[in-house]
UniProtKB/TrEMBL annotation:
GO terms for biological process: gamma-aminobutyric acid signaling pathway. PROSITE patterns: G_PROTEIN_RECEP_F3_4. The chain crosses the membrane at residues 445-469, 481-502, 514-533, 554-574, 604-624, 636-658, 664-688. This is G-protein coupled receptors family 3 profile domain-containing protein. The keyword Glycoprotein applies. It comes from Podila minutissima. Residues 445-710 form the G-protein coupled receptors family 3 profile domain. It is found in: Membrane. Residues 971-997 have a biased composition (Polar residues). Residues 950-961 have a biased composition (Basic and acidic residues). It comes from the Eukaryota. It is a multi-pass membrane protein.
Length: 1016
């Protein structure tokens, strides 16, 4: 019957309605739309829905209720051009205003019309099902919370296409998609599915972004340049047809290409001029599979469909379907099962359902009632879309579309061999031939790398043999032969890693290269750290002879560093081993690389990288701390240079970790050049000086032997002149001392550090000063960790609270510091240290050899009781009427200096080099005083004495010792009471030079029996 709102009411297969509740279901379709395909879809779908309602009512599927269909035309039938969104909304409102309301809606045919009607039904919490609208826009549950459908969405086409690509063995492809929301969603779906199947999308391009074909040419140009030959068109309708037509015109639908589209597009393409059936050979088209022959539910449906009267049920009466009849039938059956599940025999709920007020229990997930119909299992997700769809693959062969594959509920199957454009059944390659960028072993760059690395490995092996054979030589022994060999092994591993980086790597190489690179780096840097640590610990205490750090202790340090590093790599590679990966770029090039940072390997890489950087920073810090001991330890400067070189190389190579994939050659050349340069420079700088010095010693030894055999008399002559040449058989230095008893007394003295007395500017007061050699650490209060020990000559002026430090061998480079107070910092054995608090930002640590000297210098710096030297000589101030500044003036009326030199106590032989520098420094100090007077050397001038503190063979000369003294000046009148030393650590008492037999103007020298002296 027809209602007042032009709706048609149908109640199939019901003869008696007493005691039953009527459930109205609206059917919203464009019945009057003048289009053959739409008419077929509309009327065949309505027939299937009516057949389903008849079964529901006959079987009393909803207990206590029956269903009545309310058919409503969503097209006004008068103006097709204006029968759009407005008419759809009007028809929906009219349907919902049906007397008593509707409990559910089925429709519409097109996605554009369904979007409007579903928006209204969802607002009123009325469930709506569509059997033909596949737009992804309807999956938004914010706007369409009560909408679901029995047909797959366009997004599911992407999964089936990827299944077909994977079945052919193709690993890369191109994708075209429209620039609208649907195209973007389809592109995202295809990307996700391709990633799951390990398929690379080598080229992707959006077109039709402005609603026209203006950007189609640019999209196709990019395809040709990319080299991709497997093409997926993720578009439907006009954009898809325009793109395919232009591709045919350009010859891109040809022998080397495979094109895949959604839905059958051959008929509209053949309607375009100049396109022949042969031009579309090998085209693959994916469509919804509506006919599931052999599927029992579908066969049962066909049996019922064939029994229907086509006069009452259009398009029925045969065992065949014309469109979406199975999906329309499933829509009605799903609604009915959902109603029955929501009511569950409850009378109140049944009346609420009939009035359209049970919407809270009729959302898409409530429709999952395990129903399986002619269209397959009806299982819905949260968005109301079916989880599984059924698809068919058509292959265009010689002018007709042939089904070659199907996809049932997510399972893809190729039923017959597909044919390609050239008429063969051989699948073309997925891309044009690619140029591999990995340098081969025989390529020019490969030959250069192998040559440099090979020669360096040979040099390292030869050097290792020399180190082992001459391990007892002084230059090798000083550098620790064991650690030299470990460093050489590290260099060899680094060179091997550069060779392994050539050519296409194998799976084993992906593991071997990072291992050799990392272990080689760790061997070099950890041994450098260990040796630098030994130097740092030794020279942190300035008295090096008391410090012994054995190789076994350093091996523990190296072993610990290596163990932590290898443990990290072992866990990393056990959990996520490196994998071989091929990267294809857009310019028809590709390269193979070992992927070590993917997935769970990234945290391990970050930890290992941070660990290596920290170790390199420690090495740099130790090299900086040891920068001032290079003169005492001949390898420190080399180690420092190597550390700085490694640090610089690492900083240059660091950006290669973050370069994009397209910069492979830049990354390869930069990393290998830096690795080869840094490794080679470090190797040569570490070992060439050692080899040069070793062979130079061999050469000098041979020359010395030849010289000794050719002139035996030269030694005898030298000894006669130097030792017995003095008067009465006495040496020159002894005759210079005049044989005085004072000299003999001083030779037996303990050797305290002397004091330098000078007159002040007024000429009536003697200032007290003390000089000594000691370890000094200049410590910045804000960064104390940057300071290190160094030997300095210190001159203290206690009364004015300042002191001057001179570098050894550089008397002109002194600096003066004032201080506030002094304290004993440490009295531990081998660590007797004073702490002098400066007035600026520096404090000073002064280290002496023993506790007596510690207390002595503490008393001098403290100076609480005034200057004993000044008090003891104050009565004789008129005798010493000048100061050092006056002595330096050319116009001074003083004629000469009286200098009494006192030898220091014994030095250890291990510090003879330092003592020689100290001798030269002290001589230079006396040179600042203009009065010529021989010091410390036999009949030699001060300048000659300061020129060299060592003999020709490099050892300290006979009689070398450090001297301190009182430097005073006298006028033409004779000195009445010259200063002298009678106490070990004080200068309060005096001994007359005249009483000791010493003549004015002569130097009081120590006897030659004391060659080794002690510092303060």
């Amino acid at each position: 019957m027809t209602g007042v709102n032009n709706s048609l009411y149908l109640t199939p297969n019901i003869t008696k309605t007493d005691g039953l509740v009527e459930i109205k279901v609206g059917v919203l379709l464009p019945y009057s739309l003048p289009n053959d395909l739409t008419q077929q879809l509309t009327y065949s779908g309505t027939s299937a829905i009516r057949m389903a309602v008849g079964e529901i009512n006959a079987k009393n599927l909803i207990p206590g209720a029956y269903i009545t269909l309310v058919l409503k035309d969503s097209f006004n039938g008068a103006d097709p051009e204006n029968s759009g969104a407005g008419q759809a909304i009007f028809s929906t409102v009219s349907l919902l205003q049906t007397e008593g309301g509707v409990s559910g809606v089925i429709g519409d045919v097109s996605s554009a019309l369904t979007v409007q009607s579903a928006l209204l039904t969802s607002r009123l919490s009325i469930p709506q099902c569509s059997f033909s609208a596949g737009s992804t826009q309807l999956s938004s549950k914010e706007d369409y919370g009560h909408f679901f459908r029995t047909i797959p969405t366009e997004l599911m086409f992407g999964r089936v296409m990827i299944d077909f690509v994977a079945s052919r063995g193709w690993k890369t492809m191109a994708v075209f998609y429209t620039g609208d929301a649907l195209g973007s969603e389809m592109m995202d779906s295809i990307s996700m599915q391709a990633k799951k199947r390990n398929i690379n999308i080598g080229y992707r391009h959006a077109f039709w972004t402005m609603g026209s074909s203006s950007d189609v040419d640019a999209a196709l140009d990019g395809l040709k340049d990319s080299g991709q030959q497997i093409v997926v068109v993720a578009a439907v309708g006009v954009p898809q047809i325009k793109l395919m037509a232009e591709a045919v015109r350009r010859g891109l639908v040809g022998k080397n290409y495979v094109w895949m589209t959604i839905n059958q597009v051959t008929e509209p393409l053949l309607d375009i001029a100049n396109i022949m059936p042969a031009d579309l050979n090998g085209l693959f088209m994916f469509d919804n599979m509506l006919k599931l022959h052999g599927y029992p539910p579908y066969e049962e449906f066909l049996d019922k469909w064939s029994e229907m009267n086509p006069a009452e049920y259009p398009y029925s009466g045969s065992r065949d379907i014309s469109s979406n009849e199975a999906q329309a039938y499933s829509c009605m059956m799903v609604l009915a099962n959902g109603f029955a599940n929501a009511v569950k025999g409850n009378w109140t709920a049944l009346h609420l359902l009939a009035s359209g007020r049970l919407g809270s229990k009729l959302r898409p997930m409530s429709m999952n009632t395990n129903y399986t119909g002619p269209a397959g299992p009806m299982l819905f997700d949260d968005f109301g879309d079916v989880v599984y769809g059924n698809f068919i693959l058509y292959n265009y062969q010689n002018g007709r579309a042939v089904a070659v594959g199907t996809s049932y509920s997510g399972v893809f199957n190729v039923s017959s061999p597909p044919m390609y454009f050239d008429g063969t059944y051989i699948a073309p390659s997925d891309s044009a031939p690619l140029r591999v960028l990995n340098p081969k072993f025989g390529s020019p760059i490969g030959v250069v790398i192998i040559a440099i690395a090979g020669l360096s490995i040979v040099f390292s092996v030869i050097t290792m043999v020399i180190v082992i054979l001459h391990r007892h030589a002084q230059v090798i022994k000083a550098s620790s032969p064991l650690f030299c060999c470990l460093e050489l092994v590290g260099f060899i591993l680094l060179y091997i890693s550069t060779i392994l980086g050539l050519d296409i790597p194998a799976e084993g190489v992906c593991v071997a290269r990072p291992l050799t690179l990392n272990i080689g780096f760790m061997l070099v840097v950890s041994n450098i750290v260990a040796k630098n640590f030994r130097v740092y610990r030794i020279f942190h205490n300035i008295y090096v002879t008391k410090r012994v750090i054995r190789d076994s202790h350093l091996l523990k340090i190296v072993g610990t560093i290596m163990f932590v590093n290898i443990a990290i790599m072992a866990v990393w590679f056990a959990k996520t081993p490196p994998t071989l990966q091929q990267v294809t770029m857009g310019d028809l090039t590709t390269y193979f690389t070992c992927n070590i940072q993917s997935g769970t390997g990234t945290p391990f890489f970050a930890v290992l990288f941070a660990y290596n950087v920290a170790l390199l920073l420690v090495a740099t810090y130790l090299a900086y701390k040891n920068r001032n001991v290079a003169a005492n330890y001949n390898e420190c400067r080399q180690i420092a240079f190597v550390v700085y070189n490694i640090l610089l190389s690492g900083c240059i190579a660091l950006p290669t970790l973050f370069l994009p994939e397209g910069q492979y050659l830049t990354s390869f050349f930069l990393s290998n050049i830096v690795l080869l340069f840094g490794t080679t420079v470090s190797l040569m700088f570490m070992f060439l000086p050692k080899l040069w010095k070793l062979f130079s010693e061999f050469d000098r030894s041979g020359q010395q032997k030849r010289a000794d055999s050719s002139d035996d008399r030269s030694i005898d002559s030298f000894l006669h002149n130097r030792v017995g040449g003095g008067e009465g058989g006495r040496s020159g230095w002894l005759s210079n001392a005049g044989g005085s008893s004072v000299a003999q007394n001083y030779s037996n003295a303990s050797g305290r550090k002397g004091s330098v007395g000078s007159l002040d500017d007024k000429g009536d007061t003697l200032k007290e000063s003390h000089m000594g050699y000691m370890g000094v650490k200049f410590q910045n209060r804000y960064a104390p960790f940057l300071s290190s020990w160094c030997m300095r000559r210190v001159i203290l002026y206690p009364s004015d609270k300042y002191f001057t430090c001179f570098e050894l061998g550089k008397p002109e480079s002194g600096r003066t510091y004032s201080f506030v107070t002094v304290a004993i910092h440490s009295r531990e054995p081998d660590s007797y240290i004073l702490r002098v608090v400066g007035r600026g930002r520096f404090d000073f640590l002064l280290q002496v050899k023993d506790e007596d000297r510690l207390l002595h210098w503490f008393a001098l710096f403290d100076n609480k009781h005034g200057s004993s030297y000044t008090r003891s000589t104050k009565t004789n101030s008129n005798v010493y009427k000048s100061n050092v500044s006056n002595l330096e003036r050319p116009d001074s009326n003083l004629s000469y200096l009286d200098t009494m030199m006192v030898p220091m106590s014994h030095l250890s032989t291990g510090l003879m080099q330092i003592r020689s520098e100290s001798d030269a420094t002290l001589h230079g100090f006396h040179q600042m005083v203009p009065a010529p007077h021989p010091l410390m050397r036999n009949n030699s001038s001060p300048s000659a004495s300061s020129a060299s503190g060592r003999s020709e063979k490099g050892s300290p000369r006979r009689g070398d010792c450090d001297y301190v003294g009182y430097v005073g000046a006298r006028a033409q009148s004779q000195i009445q009471q010259p200063p002298a030393i009678s106490d070990r650590f004080t200068s309060s008492s005096r001994v007359s030079l005249q009483e000791s037999g010493h003549q004015p103007g002569a130097s009081v020298m120590a006897p030659p029996s004391r060659q080794n002296t002690n510092m303060a």
